[in-house]
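Predict the 3D structure for this chain.
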Amino acid sequence: MESWLRILFLFACLFPAFVECRIRRYNFNVMMKTTTRLCSSKPIATVNGKFPGPTIYAREGDNVLVNVVNHVKYNVSIHWHGVRQLRTGWSDGPAYITQCPIQPGQNYVYNFTITGQRGTLFWHAHILWLRATMHGAIVILPKLGVPYPFPKPDHEAVVVLAEWWKSDTEAVINQAIKSGLAPNVSDAHTINGHPGAISNCPSQGGYTLSVDPGKSYMLRVINAALNEELFFKIAGHKMTVVEVDATYVKPFKTDTIIIAPGQTTNVIVTANKGSGKYMVAASPFMDAPIAVDNVTATATLHYSGTLASSITTLTNTPPKNATPVANNFIDSLRSLNSKKYPAKVPKKVDHSLFFTVGLGINPCSSCKQGNGSRVVASINNVTFVMPTVAILQAHFFGIKGVYTTDFPQNPPFKFNYTGTPPTNLATMSGTKVYRLPYNATVQLVLQDTGIISPENHPIHLHGFNFFAVGKGIGNFNPKTDPNNFNLVDPVERNTIGVPSGGWVAIRFRADNPGVWFMHCHLEIHTTWGLKMAFLVDNGKGPNESLLPPPKDLPKC
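Done. Predicted structure below.
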């Protein structure tokens, strides 16, 4: 009898809407799975054979344990994107930053507590290009008995947006590295793993969201794509935005959202049409002369009682360069800033940083297709070199020669960042971090450059949320632009788009000791070196100090 009760309780813990359970346990088996899309099949790296992977469910305050077992030929690590990981950097996941990867045949238990967070985040592989197919949702419910700060929807659904290549994605990026040029774009976008109707593959199905008339639905939308920002809309229906990156926002209505790789957005849709089938669309946003996958992913919002043979009501997607549509959405985002959920924006700044983000060109004697040159990316003209020992381990154990703490606070040389580029497009290389004392407040201005091409860069900071206090087009002016900063209710995020040919300013408090990766969430830019890390020192006493590493921490 006791064993049955134990099994029943463990099963219930996987469904936190119905039970208070302090520990959530999950098993992630990384395995290859032959999968068919676009009328062709290929083996893909998956978790538990699923694409997208399983959803992690938890409540605010829960301890989450995920045993990851590697059954594939690749080294593997998993990042819990947006989870603060307070003092538990060993479970953050980026390979060679906080841990050595999990080698084939090995396993590692990620162990973290969800503190002060509720909403939608996601997990993904954080090594090579494996996150193309290794990703899934993290749904964090409020503590039991704590309501949403908006009317509770009748139902919820996870909507994961991604990309699909017919080719092996590891072969795609390896060929690009060899050539020194950009990789091939994807062959399709997907909604919950399916591209939807494709003209040259009539048998290709799509995801269907079944709804009942009059009911409300919270869609937890996640952009898990490797390299593309996406517009998302539903024919004939408005969406009420209530949350981004697991932080509540002042609700507003829109017919289109823009969501960059690494971002999440919760919207509430009311099924107010009575009947019918309505097209759901995910299409690319790119306001620079850069190639993208132009194929729109489609799904169907299907009212109960509507015949499957009924004609679907279509919608027009925004032009791919619809910057005003994107800006209208971004500029509407404001923190809820209520008494229960205040926006704790740092008013005083201890460290004022100015980082350029963009591309460059370095010599490459083996890059014949690139005529002896290679496209690279950098922050403050530093192309980050991945170490062979995890930086967090080197920091904790005092291992010398792995990294240096001289990441520049400002660009090494000034130029007209969004105007005529300098004649020398080369970058310097290094494994450099920027050191911060515990609890320091940081203002970071991220400035796009026009080298090769201006481009929107979704920058993700591990270990912290930050407030987006300002943005603009052109070069940041340190004398006048701060006068327009929003220090009252700026949106709080973990991933922010640096506008094409512009800048964004963020503020955060360095209250989490450890080593925290910051990088562009366009995977090709990360591969090219648009990444760095912050090293945050311990504070006073054990509660302000990094925990020691777990015994099963993978070895390099």
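The mean pLDDT is 95.
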